[in-house]
Amino acid sequence: MNAKFKKILSFGVVLASVGLILTACSGKKSGQSTSNKDSKHSIALITDENGVDDHSFNQAAWAGFKAYGKEHDLSRGRGGYQYFQSGSAADYTPNFDQAANAGYQTIFGVGFQLADAVKEAAKKNPKKNFVIIDSVVSGQKNVASATFESNQASYLGGLAAAYTTKTNKVGFIGGAKSAVIDLFEAGFKQGVADGAKALKKKITVQTQYIGNFTSTDKAKSIAQSMYANKVDIIYQAAGNAGNGVFQEAKDYNQARPANKKVWVIGVDVDQANLGNYKSKDGKKENFTLTSVLKGLNVVTKSIANDAYKGKFPGGKHIVYSLKDNGVSITKGNLDAKTWAAVQKARTQILDGKIKVATAPSK
């Protein structure tokens, strides 16, 4: 996402507050009708600095918003649904203020980095509903918290990697080190280890962190180093920065025959389209092995619907897992044997036969 953000419009009037002009990606104006007569069902999304079209976390949350609007015949704009885009962490609080002042009733903060801003906004606006995703805010009755057991789906991704690797070297690239990304790393590594054991293979996992969720160049550089070191599958849990891993894999694969490709495991949304390329021998190919899905669209639509019915889960912590498809994995390019192993492991996790770690082993 580039640094130049478009101004967000509502009824053609530029919203301004605390001396800042709210920035957002505008999209089609045709969806912003004036048919929203009652703001009590309106919802707003405050993104992190990666923006709503990050091919990942924010984009998935926004998909739930659009589905909610369609279901209830609400249009984009004041009284309906809208997103407020953050260029940096300094925009979080102003954006919550903008959304609240514009009359939005249920306001979502996407990502653990927005937790403090959610707490502050909820205190200032006790009659409005707030949601924090990927963190927990306790002791505030107008805040609902939603987290994911991403370790479960990441385990399945690790198992898929173990069954697919030819070099017996795979990689994990994380964004910023945190308890949330620990879930991805822990599940992936355990899945790789269990898959290696079942196949009687010795597989190593190379792990590196970018330090943030925005530096695509650094992610690309790390991926380049891993592929050069014979890693043939990388699982990236790095938000927008993860696009750099896809860029490197595409550059690498375009110079090689189709049967010598390296793979990327997608995250948050189905990132299959990011893996399209043409190999050195002229074949149309795809290198997205599978994607580990985090159902932000499920969460945003579900909680928005609860609020619509007057049943907003304020003060509650809701955990989404494999059980309710809050996390899942795509078939992608997995072969039949691998997919069967993944489905078997999914059942074993649900039955409690496989316990997936929540933090990487040291």
Can you describe this structure in just a few lines?
The chain has 362 residues and is α/β, with parallel strands linked by helices. Helix content is 34%, strand content 21%.
CATH domain class name of the largest domain: Alpha Beta
What is the assigned CATH homologous superfamily of the largest domain? Response regulator
Q: Report mean pLDDT, rounded to a whole number.
A: 89
- Rg estimate, integer Å: 21 Å
- Give the N-terminus to C-terminus distance in angstroms: 35 Å
Query: Pairing-aware structural class of the strands and helices?
Result: alpha/beta
Order of helices and strands: EEEEEHEHEHEEHEHEHEHEEEEHEEH
CATH-derived topology of the largest domain = Rossmann fold
CATH architecture of the largest domain: 3-Layer(aba) Sandwich
Stretches with pLDDT under 50, minimum 5 residues: 1-34
| Overall helicity | 25-40%
* Oligomeric state, counting identical vs distinct chains: single chain
Specify the overall morphology. globular
Strand segment tally:
18
The amount of beta strand, in percent, is: 15-25%
Describe the main β-sheet briefly. 6 strands, parallel
Widest sheet: strand ordering: 6-5-7-8-9-17
